[in-house]
Amino acid sequence: MKKILFAFAIGISITVSAQMGTKVASTATKVINVNDVERIEKILASDEMKGRRAGSPEIEKAADFIANEFKQAGLEPANETGYLQQFSMVRPQLVSAKGEINDSEIDAKNIIAITSQAELKVDEKSGYAVRIIKAGEEFRSAINKIIAEKKNAVVFVDTSFSNTFPRLRGLQRQSFKSGNSQNGTNTIFVLGNFQPKEFKFKFEHSFQEQKFANVVGVLPGKSKKNEYVIFSAHYDHIGVGKAVEGDSIYNGANDDAAGTTAVIMLARHFKKLSNNERTIIFAAFTAEEIGGYGSQYFSKQYDPALVMAMFNIEMIGTESKWGKNSAYITGFDKSSMGEILQQNLKGTSFKFYPDPYTDQNLFYRSDNATLARLGVPAHTISTSKMDTEPNYHKVSDEVETLDLHNMAEIILAIAESSKTIVAGKDTPSRVKTDSLN
User: Fold this and answer.
1) Cβ neighbours, 10 Å, residue 244
2) Which pLDDT tens digit goes with each residue over 188-200?
3) Is a pLDDT exceeding 70 seen at residue 333?
4) pLDDT at 91 over 90
5) Neighbour-count burial of 223, counting CB atoms closer than 10 A to its CB (0-12 exposed, 13-18 middle, 19+ buried)
6) In 3-state terms, what secondary structure has residue 124?
7) Distance CA 302, CA 226 (A)
8) CA distance 122 to 128
9) 102 CB-contact burial (10 Å; exposed 0-12 / middle 13-18 / buried 19+)
10) 417 three-class SS
11) What integer pLDDT is reported at residue 301 of this predicted model?
12) What is the pTM of this model?
């Protein structure tokens, strides 16, 4: 059995080497090989991991495994506590609300606080900015502008928006918490045509807290340490559900143990080369399946102006619609990154294509979206046939359904196509945020 596997691995190296050239083959094919692809996949997508649902004990096992792989690869931890980038999601529930304007009490239903504080007391002496949304304004644009200021504010909303006002409670979504501090400012919305000299507000909230962790490793750059290139994937899946023919575990071999395997293999590859001029960050995100919270928190830790490119890898375990030796890039037309990758693969049999499933809005549905909205050339690489993928979000998404041979070649293609960006020779154009929906 060992001889057969060894011969199979050599066959992969020969095939990929022929495609990518001897310059890459001497290092890459020794590191990116089908045996390790299979080993990592089988652990992450095993029944013991029970579908790696975010917040479960099993996803903690997966995180520990990935962290150990990063350590074995020789990456530096992203923070002082290690490879785990720990955070919590805090969900508020209103307990009580009281408000007075010019010594007159107002109806509690007409005041809404967006806050991460259990008790919030505000009056005219608290230093809050006062904003007014007048009749005739475009409501959503006005709200977005106020939120973008990132200031503590009291916002008086004209009564012409009384039907829309309750929707502001939807802004009371969960917030991030790292350590003992929560992110965000306080915004109080008040329905009424007021120009008060005095006001007092008091809110009490209870909070439900759930802990999560990304796994992040760093390979410091040489001449451009403060410029970052990110390789990422999400390592969570949807856990255990209703049994189908006796199987209730959603193993998530393709979605997205495949992408996580690629990130681990790329970490080993670039560490082996040790010639990256830019700093490379390798990230495995949690909670993609329940809202993309892992990548959202991760994105807040970096200045987007310093992130030169993000390679997010999602579902590369099956052949694309064009067959082997191919993959697609979401948001291809939104930066020059895809063109750079294509140029670096010129003369090989591998080809990157623009996303053929634009009707499914994939550019905004994966972990690249948060940084892309901030202007970063952040794209997802995938092969998933989103119109016909037979095992997507099913219990049948298991290792046996994957083409590990093709998957190894895709990982090698990502390594080769990204080399000039990692080296600091090419810098993709920024995503124009004013063109994003």
Assistant:
1) 11
2) 999 999 888 899 9
3) yes
4) no
5) exposed
6) coil
7) 11
8) 8
9) exposed
10) helix
11) 94
12) 0.81
